[in-house]
Amino acid sequence: MRITLNGQPAQVPEGATAEQLVELQGLTSTICAVEINQSLVPKADRAGRVIEPDDKIEIVTLVGGG
Of 63, 64, 51, 61, which is closest to residue 1 (Cα–Cα)? Predict the structure, then answer.
């Protein structure tokens, strides 16, 4: 199914959850925030939040620097 991920077109399997998308992006061991259609998805809710066609998703990670 087609979505927008971090401003770019992307494909995810039907029925995929926000948690599975984080896994597909290789970010399971990274602290990150997931926003779907401009609404933050709490980490505790990611496994139950099913992604819908045409959802606009942002995954943001922390980057340190100086």
Answer: 51
